[in-house]
């Protein structure tokens, strides 16, 4: 994370950074890079000061294939459904499949979570930010 942040900060300096009142195109990459460097330092520091007992229980005792599969399939569902069906079904499927990756998740809780995220996602991206992504293919709001 620190290397990626350093790369973003260095590359962003090639553009005009500007000031806080008149931000240039390089301001955001530099700021984000510095934040990533700081977070990388915090992560490395927390790993350094953790006890041996905490380190032993870091990895799960058994493979989490269901979680991995759901995490990998979730963005694939969003990409494919977003392209061919629209934002609403793509967002719902993405969140629903990702939620099913949790062993404690039920179909009902995953459905409720996916419905809520989809509802607020449609409001935010379609109506507030006015992103030109059809809610349902063939229907533009």
The structural domain count equals 2
Q: What's the main sheet like?
A: none
Can you count the helices? 6
Helix content: 55-70%
Question: Quick one: overall form?
Answer: flat
Radius of gyration: 20 Å
Measured between the Cα atoms of the first and last residue, the distance is 39 Å
Number of DSSP E strands: 0
* Class from secondary-structure proportions: mainly alpha
What fraction strand?
under 5%
Low-confidence stretches: none
Secondary-structure element pattern, one letter each: HHHHHH
Average pLDDT rating: 89
Any chance you could write out the topology, listing elements then pairs?
Blueprint: H1 2-12, H2 27-49, H3 52-56, H4 65-84, H5 87-99, H6 107-128
Outline:
This protein has helices at 2-12, 27-49, 52-56, 65-84, 87-99, 107-128. With 141 residues, the chain is mainly α. The chain has 2 domains: 2-56, no CATH class; 65-128, no CATH class.
How would you sum up this structure, described in words?
With 141 residues, the chain is an all-alpha fold. It has helices at residues 2-12, 27-49, 52-56, 65-84, 87-99, 107-128. The protein folds into 2 domains: 2-56, no CATH class; 65-128, no CATH class. The longest helix is centred in the first third of the chain and has 23 residues, at 27-49. The relative contact order is 0.09.
């Amino acid at each position: 994370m620190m290397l990626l942040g350093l790369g973003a900060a260095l590359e962003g300096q090639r553009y005009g950074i500007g000031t806080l009142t008149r931000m240039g195109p390089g301001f955001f990459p530099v700021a984000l890079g510095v934040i990533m460097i700081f977070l990388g330092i915090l992560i490395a520091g927390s790993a350094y000061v953790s006890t041996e007992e905490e380190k032993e229980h870091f990895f799960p005792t058994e493979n989490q294939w269901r979680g991995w599969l759901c995490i990998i399939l979730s963005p694939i569902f969003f990409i494919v459904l977003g392209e061919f069906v629209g934002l609403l079904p793509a967002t719902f499927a993405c969140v629903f499949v990702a939620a099913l990756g949790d062993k404690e998740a039920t179909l009902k809780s995953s459905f409720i979570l996916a419905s809520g995220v989809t509802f607020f996602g449609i409001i935010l991206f379609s109506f507030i930010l006015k992103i030109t992504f059809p809610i349902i293919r063939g229907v533009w709001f």
